[in-house]
Fold this sequence. Notes:
Two copies of one chain form a homodimer.
Chain A: E1 10-15, H1 38-50, E2 55-58, H2 78-86, E3 93-99, H3 105-118, E4 123-128, H4 133-136, H5 147-165, E5 173-176, E6 181-183, E7 193-194, E8 199-200, E9 215-218, H6 223-232, E10 235-238, H7 243-255, E11 268-277, H8 281-294, H9 297-308, H10 334-347, H11 351-359, E12 365-369, H12 371-383, E13 389-392, H13 399-414, H14 427-431
Parallel strand pairs in A: 1-2, 1-13, 2-3, 3-4, 4-9, 9-10, 10-11, 11-12, 11-13
Antiparallel strand pairs in A: 5-6, 7-8
Keywords (chains A, B): Flavoprotein, FMN, Monooxygenase, Oxidoreductase
Organism (chains A, B): Streptomyces antimicrobicus
Protein name (chains A, B): LLM class flavin-dependent oxidoreductase
Amino acid sequence: MTTQPPRTLHLNAFLMNAGHHDAAWRHPSSRPERITDLSYFQELARTAERGKLDSIFFADGVALWGKARHNALGGFEPLTLLSAIAAVTEHIGLIATVSTTFNEPFNLARKFASLDHLSGGRAGWNIVTSGTVDEARNFNRDEHLEHHVRYERAREFLEVALKLWDSWEDDAIVLDRAAGVYADTDKLHPAAHRGAHFQVAGPLNVPRSPQGYPLLVQAGSSEDGKEFAAQYAEAVFTAQQTLADGQAFYKDLKSRLARYGRSEEDLLVLPGIAPLIGSTEAEAKELERELTELQVPAYGLAQLSGMLGVDLTGLPLDGPLPELPDERDINGNKSRFTLVAELGRREGLTLRELIARLGAGRGHRVFAGTPEQVADQLQEWFTQGAADGFNIMAPVLPTGLSDFVDHVVPVLQRRGLFRTEYTGRTLRDHYGLPRPVNRHVTA
Amino acid sequence: MTTQPPRTLHLNAFLMNAGHHDAAWRHPSSRPERITDLSYFQELARTAERGKLDSIFFADGVALWGKARHNALGGFEPLTLLSAIAAVTEHIGLIATVSTTFNEPFNLARKFASLDHLSGGRAGWNIVTSGTVDEARNFNRDEHLEHHVRYERAREFLEVALKLWDSWEDDAIVLDRAAGVYADTDKLHPAAHRGAHFQVAGPLNVPRSPQGYPLLVQAGSSEDGKEFAAQYAEAVFTAQQTLADGQAFYKDLKSRLARYGRSEEDLLVLPGIAPLIGSTEAEAKELERELTELQVPAYGLAQLSGMLGVDLTGLPLDGPLPELPDERDINGNKSRFTLVAELGRREGLTLRELIARLGAGRGHRVFAGTPEQVADQLQEWFTQGAADGFNIMAPVLPTGLSDFVDHVVPVLQRRGLFRTEYTGRTLRDHYGLPRPVNRHVTA
Lengths: 443, 443
């Protein structure tokens, strides 16, 4: 009889410019002058690796975000950046956000296969459909595609990518110098895809990679998003404000897996948390207050307008939210709209208060406390059915990440909740997920 | 009165899998088992940097090339690979081939801006239009675009990319923490492009990079290709078999610059050479013979068929070339067709002989000799008006590159023809080209 190892949690470091808080770049502990400097991100990745974290992750969009006047922006394209980080790290997983709406599956499948090869099996893809008109206008369109059509395209995009990643069997390369045979072409397969959005012949021009294909990550929590995640995703990033909301989302998403022939262990749910860490609770709250005071109201209002799909310019900051549209009529990030609208209504917040509450996490949960208190929060969500791990969003970088690694991780390790050493080499090893079998291989 | 420094030549290392010779992977000095391994390419890049070369370069196509049965293929996507190489090198330029036919300008401009930032100004773009139907079939098409239309699209693509690269002035980032102003938005500019192929709003979401934009490289030698190069390119890779052909091409291309308001120094001509290096001439010839004997005739015939646009399968290897179409009717690589057809006709080669002649360089010049003899060849072309430098195509890797760096480079240095140390940091510094001025800046 074998004993099951104790369940441990997973930690992803979500890295962003000078930090997740929208005023991070103004805070003296941040380094905004370094965000166009590769060494800054390499150091952050090494810090995460020092903490034995599962992975690092970059969000992305394909338009200038927030107009750059009041927010610090490096803007490196994530696959390019993660390739340069791969070269100076050994274990940490590397998750890039890339849009299915503004790319071609052959190019993208190839880039991820390349990153997976050159990182020794550490690539992950956060699949997004791009929800803003600013992005559409950089890609030959006046308006962006309707929400449902974007997900249709995403589904077909992923099917093509999966075919391409399976187009070389793992043992296709025979490398027989004497016979002059490099690859056994019986083990290469066309994609031969002809669908509504794509026609792709294949095979891919990169051999199958260490993980077979990148870890598939998804972060949309709308109905379309959850269904897409249930079908394909192996990890889900989500914004949940309360334990009850987190539990409901977790249960909902896991219950959808069976209809795609998948089990609950096949998908990890990783809610975001922006932890403000202090050696005392008062110190943590003081950091939070400092950051709130550094917020630029015009920027916060513009961001809030974007999330709610309503122009709030000119409304009194100390007044309430105006009448809002229904989620049905939102064609951007539907789930974020609903979360923010409910947060405002539930707590009766003024615009100024809502901007302050959204400053650190843009809708993700924010928690200020000591390392023990932060660990308590993670443990609670992890043991109470709301999380398999967490998306750690340091409000200020690099300090917020090094504080988490140096002070919160050891608490989690002492409690037996987190690894003390890496036990595998690939990103799926870290997440405890199996390597996908090639569809062309029969047992 | 200032004295002009002596004119020195430029060297680019064109890296390919196990080496440029189509049988390189079967030769005992190659390492085909390492071509899906990042460390292999990092070592090659460091070898080139040890030799103080200007740059390394990867060719590319977006379809499986040669079907992989008889040719060793790693297939990493060049921008991904070069980003990982950037992280472990300091000086060497990094030139990636990317197609204008199967990409979107916003994505590509951003990737090159990212690579240029994270390499400290070492990015170069070899602009190709993709000439094969196999590539078109991976991108929703049954047939590929007509040659002239591909160049029209390439021109507009480049215009959009140039607008995006200029969309941030160099001093747009003010980083005023006290005032809460990150960027001076008066120094950000939309692209506002509306053309026949693209509509792109801009601005780019990456600040202007160290070089302003990547070095622009071009390698097509058709009429369309030469005209495109004369208008935009800063370096041209070209295949020329004889000194006379090299001189004619050099003169032709340089003479086209004036009509675009450019001078002869604005564009460097770099013919390819595949040097087989031996400590004696006999040893070099012996290496050439060994490689020829390792060629797989079926593979050579398929490659030749592709270059000539004629199916040669089943024709006797010891017979002559059949009747060939006119260059006008070739819709792939027109200049390579003409070069190969003329080589076969001029020397009355059989198919087998032509395959042997094309084995090491696919139409580029092949030369077997001692380091002194190789240096003599380079010096002759450089001083006789056929080259500003060379595209060095080691027939077998890694040995062909380390032999060149360790034995040919020192001869060139002793003759005062090549640098002994890097004097600048960026790729344009190495090539002696100025950093482009942003169009929005007035003196």
